[in-house]
Amino acid sequence: MASSVLKIVFSPSHPQGGTGRAGVMTDVHRRFLQLLMTHGVLEEWDVRHLQKHCYRVHDRTATMEALEDFINNINSVLESLYIEIKKGATEDDGRPVYALVNLATTSISKMASDFAENELDLFRKALELIIDSETGFASSTNILNLVDQLKGKKMRKKEAEQVLQKFVQNKWLIEKEGEFTLHSRAILEMEQYIRETYPDAVKICNICHSLLIQGQSCETCGIRMHLPCTAKYFQSSPEPRCPHCNDYWPHEIPEVFDPEKEREAGTSRASKRSLRSRQH
Amino acid sequence: MLLKPENGALPIPQAEGEKDGGRDGETQALTASQKEVPSPLLQETPMEDLGARREEGAVDSTITPKGARTLAAKALARRRAYRRLDRTVAELVQFLLVKDKKKSPITRSEMVKYVIGDLKDLFPEIIARAAEHLRYVFGFELKQFGRKHHTYILINKLKALEEEEEDLGGDGPRLGLLIMILGLIYMKGNSARETQVWEMLRRLGVRPSKYHFLFGYPKRLIMEDFVQQRYLNYRQVPHTDPPECEFSWGPRSNLEISKMKVLGFVAKLHKKEPQHWPVQYREALADEADRARAKARAEASMRARARARARASDRAGICPW
């Protein structure tokens, strides 16, 4: 084997924009990536803050790129690693969020190293209940009742309660009044996996055609829409009607998310955040 | 979990075995500059041309239809093989990032078991490419603990910032505790008895088995986590009766922090200057000098290798892209 080895000699440095394909990574981008990875998922205002912080640390004199271009630049470099910074929105009020997600693997592999086999199986069981549910929420009781069916080491209900809290802390699940649904991070990371694994049970939004966990549905024809998608679609309609069957839309139309309003409500944000931090 | 690699013969040459680039005997930085492997971003067409050149035996200028089919099949197999190699490298990068988040060192056998599979003969090339990605894209350096122990960790090349530590939450207080212990160890002459460590912590209100709101169970954090993460070494002191155990700095601490920094921290704590402890100060100065020398050596050899590579690629006339 060794005798037929040929040394292939290449320039060690990466093309500095030479190929015209991949962007250029500097310490600004690297720090941004590292911190985004640490947080798992970040809201857009946090991401802008983060971008500013990275420029301040590494390159004060440079003009800051627009966030979209900044992220596209990084994504072009990440392409060869089959990962990307993906933008999504929270399902309850449409706040834009960003996460670093896998493009290639179709499993819950990112969780796999943080959790034991029986913990991963608990997540899978919770995931299935959430997907099958009407509201997108699975009750703590129903999840804990499945504890006997878990693969791997036997888990007691008390332990399972703590594992569920671990999922919440790591931003895979959100808890609301004893019920669990998927965190926007999980939706961003696992959409492809969920669509491939549960093709029959999965719900899709009629407007944006993405995975839907929480949303509103038409009582006549059954189509579903995300709350923020509903807000945008019916924004200027005095009389909201189902886009599919034209029947009256029976639900309250939520407000469109407005980042400006969020910033103005600066002082009350603190209390809003503490509420949200329980969920997100 | 991660994609399982399929079977198949790969007409990819082995990267040459690990060079003796070890500087301070304890760790080796694994970057692509140490290994003569292609830069990971330069994956696609150029490789295929080289693949053709790599074929053993001369390619006949007169090609029969059957020969053309064979060549086409070989080219296809080569492209598939490169794609598979790319994917494996990408998976290894993700695997290393995820594992490093827990701060536990990663062994070669883990990498082979979970990611590389039956491409394990190409381990040197795969890990070199992964190291280059980690360096260029994320700013992490992949370091190996010694030449024999196939264990690796990631070192952050970006300078650490104090504000960020607070943002990250969780980790901050624990690392603070670690630095206190490292400080004690250093001031006691590079090793401290276990009893001394617990005595110091007791004065801070930290007891081994009492749950602490910042550190969790301190005994588990120190005896298990810190030791497993190679921040601390823990061993039994020979010829002690009853048997006593002592802590010393683990290899990871030596990589992530310096004696001078820890001395500075201890000094600040006591509201004094580092020079107040002349013995430790001299030792810290010597340590700084060693680190500077090692760094200079590393940079010099990297430059030399880059020059050698530039000369060689000029000769071969290969356009990198």
TrEMBL record, chain A:
Subcellular location(s) per record: Chromosome, Telomere; Nucleus
GO-annotated biological processes: double-strand break repair via homologous recombination
CDD domains according to UniProt: RING-CH-C4HC3_NSE1
Gene behind this protein: NSMCE1
UniProt record similarity statement: Belongs to the NSE1 family.
Assembly and oligomerization: Component of the Smc5-Smc6 complex.
Name listed for the protein in its UniProt record: Non-structural maintenance of chromosomes element 1 homolog
Biased composition (Basic residues): 270-280
Role, per record: RING-type zinc finger-containing E3 ubiquitin ligase that assembles with melanoma antigen protein (MAGE) to catalyze the direct transfer of ubiquitin from E2 ubiquitin-conjugating enzyme to a specific substrate. Involved in maintenance of genome integrity, DNA damage response and DNA repair.
SUPFAM superfamilies (alphabetical): Cysteine-rich domain
One cellular-component annotation, GO: chromosome, telomeric region
Cited Pfam families: SMC_Nse1, zf-RING-like
EC number(s) per entry: 2.3.2.27
Entry keyword DNA damage: yes
Region (Disordered) residue spans: 256-280
Basic and acidic residues composition bias: residue spans: 256-266
The keyword Lipoprotein appears for this protein: no
Phorbol-ester/DAG-type domain: residues covered: 190-242
Organism: Neomonachus schauinslandi
Residue span, RING-type domain: 205-246
Catalytic activity of the protein: S-ubiquitinyl-[E2 ubiquitin-conjugating enzyme]-L-cysteine + [acceptor protein]-L-lysine = [E2 ubiquitin-conjugating enzyme]-L-cysteine + N(6)-ubiquitinyl-[acceptor protein]-L-lysine
Entries under InterPro entries matching the protein: C1-like_sf (IPR046349), Nse1 (IPR011513), Nse1_RING_C4HC3-type (IPR014857), PKC_DAG/PE (IPR002219), WH-like_DNA-bd_sf (IPR036388), Znf_RING (IPR001841), Znf_RING/FYVE/PHD (IPR013083)
Automatic annotation (TrEMBL), chain B:
Source superkingdom: Eukaryota
Pfam families: MAGE (PF01454)
Keyword Zinc-finger: no
InterPro entries recorded: MAGE, MAGE_WH1, MAGE_WH2, MHD_dom
Domain MAGE positions: 85-284
Keyword Secreted included in the entry's annotation: no
Region of interest: Disordered: 1-51
GO biological process, one term: negative regulation of transcription by RNA polymerase II
Basic and acidic residues bias: start-end ranges: 16-26
Entry keywords, A to Z: Tumor antigen, Ubl conjugation pathway
A Gene Ontology term for the protein's cellular component: nucleus
Residue ranges crossing the lipid bilayer per the database entry: none
Protein name as catalogued: Melanoma-associated antigen F1
